[in-house]
Design goal:
Helix content: 25-40%
Number of helices: 12
Radius of gyration: 21 Å
Strand content: 25-35%
Number of strands: 20
Mean pLDDT: 94
Length: 364
């Protein structure tokens, strides 16, 4: 029992050992004991009740890496989560045992210039659930700073609380791009992030939103979620020119902001060419570390290119949108699984296959 806190010892004696889903190798997940760090004075212990699978989790599962983040040792997976406070640190005043909370998964240093200037999502010392080498939150319980746990109103479920994490990406993108009731929006990609960006753009007041994708199943979901127009595109870069015309005709007026939620040469080329002069292109999807795209003609038309990385200070607004009904994330949850060895494996295979799966959710 070395390295286990006294609290863990007590739980172990009670037969309540904390278990977690550990990524051990390519497509190899095992539910094994997870000994938590000691509860600090400003921490809380949370019993995880809902956790969604993210595209980055699937990358880790399939390849043991996501972009430059490489899994080099066994790691607890998962980061889109919500749960119930099980224990509070001695200095925690804002939360109490039994509170239902959504967890923001990244712990920044709070000391560097970026953190002090409010752009903490760019902190180089960020410790993010389930991003190597940091353990994630697909576990019975986790320890987390209280300031990153946000209390859920009675009319917002734990599953919706877990959906605050992907929704935050769309909210942060809409803030960065200054989406308003005067902004017409194009979204490239109708995967989970494209769909939450659609919901966020609507909540920010965008009067007209068009979404393009290669998959007609995803497009029909986008239509049901409120896209004004859906456009099926090809994977062939030669088709960009005619597809841009089709998208612009469907919008009927200039496209103020385009969100590329994919990050391929073709999607970025389409976004840059379709956006009106003086408009903005926001790159959300990071599929490739390098891409070839027509920047020069876009720059000559003063099209601004904006990058985003994760999110910052988004949970309160997400929760407000969910509470008031301005955003409904429930239709995005397509599959649900429990927390057994077989179900964990099945859930990740389901998410990795794609198809009709948008958000795969664990109920613990």
């Amino acid at each position: 029992m070395s390295g286990v806190t006294g609290g863990e010892d007590k739980e172990h004696r009670n037969g309540e050992e904390n278990m977690a889903a550990w990524l051990l190798g390519i497509k190899t997940l095992k539910i094994q004991p997870y000994h938590l760090p000691a509860l600090g004075p400003h921490d809380v212990k949370v019993q995880i009740k809902a956790l969604g699978i993210c595209g980055s989790d699937v990358h880790h599962f399939k390849t043991m890496r996501c972009a430059n983040f490489i899994v080099k040792k066994p790691m607890v997976i998962g980061h889109e989560c919500a749960g119930i406070i099980d224990e509070v640190g001695s200095h925690v005043k804002s939360l109490a045992v039994g509170d239902r909370v959504a967890l923001e998964p990244g712990i920044s240093c709070r000391q560097c210039d970026l953190c002090k200037n409010g752009r903490y999502n760019l902190c180089r010392e960020m410790k993010f659930f389930g991003s190597p080498p940091n353990n994630g939150s697909l576990a019975n319980k986790v320890v987390h700073p209280a300031y990153l746990c946000f209390k859920l109103p009675d009319n917002v479920s734990l599953e919706e609380g877990a959906m605050c994490e992907p929704l935050s990406v769309g909210i942060h993108a809409c803030r960065r791009a200054n989406i308003s009731p005067e902004t017409s929006v194009l979204i490239m990609g109708a995967g989970p992030i494209g769909l939450v960006t659609l919901l966020a753009a609507r909540a920010f007041g965008a009067p007209r939103v068009i979404i393009a994708d290669v998959d007609d199943c995803r497009l029909s979901i986008a239509k049901n979620l409120g896209a004004d127009e859906i456009i099926q595109v090809s994977t062939n870069i030669q088709d960009v020119g005619e597809e841009v015309v089709k998208i612009q005709n469907a919008m009927g007026s200039g496209i103020d902001v385009s969100f590329d939620c994919v990050g391929f040469d073709k999607t970025m080329s389409t976004a840059l060419n379709a956006t009106r002069s003086g408009g903005k292109v926001c790159l959300i999807g990071l599929a490739k570390s390098e891409m070839t795209a027509p920047l020069t003609p876009a720059a000559a038309r003063e099209v601004d290119v904006i990058g985003i990385f994760r999110y910052r200070n988004t949970w309160p607004l997400c929760i407000e949108f969910l509470k008031t009904g301005k955003i409904d994330v429930k239709p995005l949850i397509t599959h649900r699984f429990g927390f057994s060895q077989q179900e964990v494996e099945d859930a990740f295979e389901t998410s990795a296959r794609g198809g009709t799966a948008i958000k795969v959710m664990f109920n613990l």
